[in-house]
Design a protein that fits this description.
binds zinc ion, Arc Repressor Mutant, subunit A, 64% helix, single chain, globular
Length: 102
């Protein structure tokens, strides 16, 4: 079991990761779960979906339904507000990285 602080930090990392990918290309929930897992985060749909919904409610992400190969899915992409938040998070991440990673 992860410790409380790490869990908070990882949840924040995941949110930044989500913003980043929303900028790159619209994604759907299941894709993001697999993406985060490939980066070593174990996250379930039950954890991810509330995060996505909250980020949408906060106007960081917007959604669009698309049908691809007969599957209707909700695709998430970045809003202007999300872009601003991502820019700031990127600056701070870079700053932190330069300080703590040798
Ligand atoms: Zn990624």
């Amino acid at each position: 079991m992860e410790n409380k602080l790490l869990r908070k930090v990882f949840l924040a990392f995941m949110r930044i990761h989500i913003l980043y990918h929303a900028k790159e290309e619209p994604f759907f929930g299941l894709w993001m779960i697999e993406e985060l897992q490939s980066h070593g985060y174990s996250i379930s749909a039950g954890t991810l979906y509330p995060i996505l919904h909250k980020m949408e409610a906060d106007k960081l992400l917007k959604t669009e339904e698309k049908t691809i190969k007969g599957k209707v899915r909700k695709y998430y992409s970045l809003t202007q507000k999300g872009q601003k938040v991502l820019n700031e998070a990127q600056q701070k991440t870079k700053e932190l990285f330069n300080e703590i990673i040798e």
